[in-house]
Design goal:
Elements: H1 4-33, E1 37-43, H2 48-61, E2 65-72, H3 74-83, E3 88-91, E4 103-117, E5 124-125, H4 127-135, E6 152-156, H5 161-171, E7 181-183, H6 186-194, E8 199-204, E9 212-217, H7 224-228, E10 235-242, H8 248-257, H9 260-268, E11 272-273
Parallel strand pairs: 1-2, 1-3, 5-9, 6-7, 6-8
Antiparallel strand pairs: 3-10, 4-8, 4-9, 4-10, 4-11
Amino acid sequence: MKRFIPLALGAIILFAILAAIHSLRAPARRDENHAPASITLAGSTSVQPFAEILADEYMNEVENIIINIQGGGSSAGARSALSGVAEVGMLSRELQGDEKTLVPTYIAYDAIALVVHTSNPSRNLDIAEVQGIFAGKTTDWSEVGGETRKIHVVTREEGSGTRGAFDQIIMGTVEVTPGAIVQDSNGAVREIVAGDPSAIGYLSLGLVDKRVKAIAVSGVLPSIATVANNTYKLVRPMILATREGPRKEVRDFISYCLSEKAQAMLAKEGLVPVTSVTPGG
């Protein structure tokens, strides 16, 4: 009988240890079963593809988070953030009017590149020439040193951050010609220009690829270097805007966008990190 007492005592101790281990593991299982937090970003189609790259990487690194990203344009993004439809508004222009009640975080800077068909021999236009083309006053490429060919103007829709920045820097108070082909995204502008030897449009430098050709403005080609040193003037900010006091999950994602890793990813995609731009440009 005495021989069985140590065995019984050992069994009790083993049971207690297993029970303790079970209780320690239980919270972890509850965390694994917890519904993931969700963040919605909406707005600029210029910011959108870069935000998607950052969000994909962030979701790979952080558990229990889902980031939904939608387009719609900068103005729509600001309205979404103001109304609470989205927690983060994406803008590729400065905040305006009542949008200034939002809190902006600058995550990068981007050049607006003038693009033409790859077969177009034109390499440079000055700002007055660009304005004349988009106003409809200059209608043939031969008027700006090119081949004799009608110019087909491709522009973005009203409310687009890319359009807003282009109008501010290039057009001023001059209206874009009503004969322009209006597209609702940078990708759509690129496709139109890529398929039309007579076309000229503008889009984010980070979205310029071999299908189209970027041309110089006043002798300066768009690049990370010329944006950073302020010699290329068609530049706009990439902004994530929120209402005051966003949730921790939102703050954490925005902080990630400013991290060294995220800024390097944006630079690889053709944007200029916020820390690289020379002040006072």
